[in-house]
């Protein structure tokens, strides 16, 4: 006699209470093996593949793609053959490798997904890449109507884009004057998290100070260091030096590495500097952090920045690096922007913004020279720092960027 198991959405990491179901990689009637990927979900932190804890046949898909699902919610029902080993309790919390079990939650009434006629026979599902399935779902296009150009006839995202263009061309018609075009929400889990974080950020009284600095010596230092073997394959940019200067300056300005304790109504100095790097990607903005950044050399810091930014843009950042940050640096200069006024990452006392480095006329000893100049902005929590403290800290960061000897003495 076969046994049915309901797979619950696992606890996917610290502070994550829900996830968006991006797509199913199996269909009703499919046979699944142990650890076979059942679905792809998107949390506020990353994209995660959910492996099956059971061997059997998919009987029900309990959640629609695009839905936001609380941790502990049943998402799929798998019927297991009688001769297969099974857990003693099919309703026990699901555990994803590397994460803990979900906390107990009250039972929920759930709806059953009725498969569309095109996908009822899962063995006949049109092969497609995950990005193609997502694009087709968001556009409301049936994959069975698209001819795939990928491997073994798989539909690709480009195929979906072509189909969309053809559909738009054939259906295009003038809209009545004054009509409003409505669009579907496009926020990913990460963008929703960013939105929540920015709202939470505004609860802190924030102020900003600005300083335009001559960073010519730093640019010259970069030019000398980049060809060295130690930095081969690593990201050595103005951001790297600014990050090093920021971390170094904290050693003499410990109040910067502080968070506000609401319960105590006071500031608490953090023991280590966990440096957050704001990274923009197609999925949104994330701020992975480098643990114990104050202990790293410039080479080690450059390696950490490189690894974290690559992982963040790919959506595979480890949850460990997405929590526990103490200060943040953001580089709007890569977008050609002179500067900005960043909002604090919730719970942190400061965020440093680096603007673009550009050649400008600069007065040195009453003579005008062409120098590499950048604008630095420091946004701070006014409960923790006053204007003088923030200004002195920002000035010290700028001094290190303007004086290679001062910065090199801390490398």
Automatic annotation (TrEMBL):
The keyword Acyltransferase applies. Residues 4-79 form the Lipoyl-binding domain. The keyword Chaperone does not apply. Residues 78-137 are annotated as: Disordered. InterPro entries: 2-oxoacid_DH_actylTfrase, 2-oxoacid_DH_E2_comp, Biotin_lipoyl, CAT-like_dom_sf, E3-bd_dom_sf, PSBD, Single_hybrid_motif. One of its GO terms (cellular component) is cytoplasm. It comes from Rhodococcus erythropolis (Arthrobacter picolinophilus). CDD domains: lipoyl_domain (cd06849). GO terms for molecular function: acetyltransferase activity; lipoic acid binding. Belongs to the 2-oxoacid dehydrogenase family. Keywords: Acyltransferase, Lipoyl, Transferase. Its EC number is 2.3.1.-. This is Dihydrolipoamide acetyltransferase component of pyruvate dehydrogenase complex. Its cofactor is (R)-lipoate. Residues 83-94 have a biased composition (Low complexity). Residues 127-164 form the Peripheral subunit-binding (PSBD) domain.
């Amino acid at each position: 006699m076969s046994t049915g198991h309901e797979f619950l959405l696992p606890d996917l990491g610290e502070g994550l209470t829900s996830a968006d179901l991006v797509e199913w990689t199996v269909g009703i009637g499919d046979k699944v093996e142990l650890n076979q990927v059942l679905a792809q979900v998107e949390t506020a932190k990353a994209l995660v593949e959910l492996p099956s804890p059971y061997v059997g046949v998919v009987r029900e898909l309990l959640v629609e793609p695009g839905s936001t699902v609380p941790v502990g919610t049943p998402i799929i029902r798998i019927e297991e053959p009688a001769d297969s080993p099974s857990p003693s309790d099919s309703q026990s919390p699901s555990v994803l490798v590397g994460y803990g079990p979900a906390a107990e939650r009250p039972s929920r009434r759930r709806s059953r997904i009725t498969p569309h006629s095109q996908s009822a026979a899962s063995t006949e599902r049109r092969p497609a890449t995950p990005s193609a399935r997502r694009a087709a779902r968001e556009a409301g296009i049936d994959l069975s109507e698209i001819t795939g150009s990928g491997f073994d006839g798989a539909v690709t995202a480009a195929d979906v884009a072509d189909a969309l263009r053809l559909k738009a061309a054939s259906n295009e018609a003038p809209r009545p004057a004054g009509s409003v075009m409505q669009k579907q929400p496009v926020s990913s889990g990460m963008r929703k998290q960013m939105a929540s974080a920015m709202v939470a950020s505004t609860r802190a009284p924030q102020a900003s100070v600005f300083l335009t600095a001559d960073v010519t010596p730093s640019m010259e230092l970069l030019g000398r260091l980049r060809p060295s073997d130690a930095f081969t394959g690593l990201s050595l940019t103005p951001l790297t030096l600014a990050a090093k200067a920021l971390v170094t300056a904290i050693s003499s300005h410990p109040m910067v590495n502080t968070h506000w304790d609401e319960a105590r109504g006071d500031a608490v100095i953090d023991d280590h500097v966990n440096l957050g790097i704001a990274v923009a990607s197609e999925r949104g903005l994330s701020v992975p952090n480098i643990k114990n950044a104050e202990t790293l050399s410039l080479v080690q810091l450059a390696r950490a920045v490189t690894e974290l930014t690559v992982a963040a843009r790919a959506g595979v950042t480890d949850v460990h690096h997405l929590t526990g940050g103490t200060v943040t640096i953001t580089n709007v200069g890569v977008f050609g922007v002179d500067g900005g006024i960043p909002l604090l990452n919730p719970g942190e006392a400061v965020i440093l913004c680096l603007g673009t480095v550009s050649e400008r006329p600069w007065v040195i000893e009453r003579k005008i020279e062409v120098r590499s100049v950048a604008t630095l902005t420091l946004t701070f929590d006014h409960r923790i720092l006053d204007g003088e403290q923030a200004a002195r800290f920002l000035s010290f960061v700028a001094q290190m960027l303007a004086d290679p000897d001062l910065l090199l003495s801390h490398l």
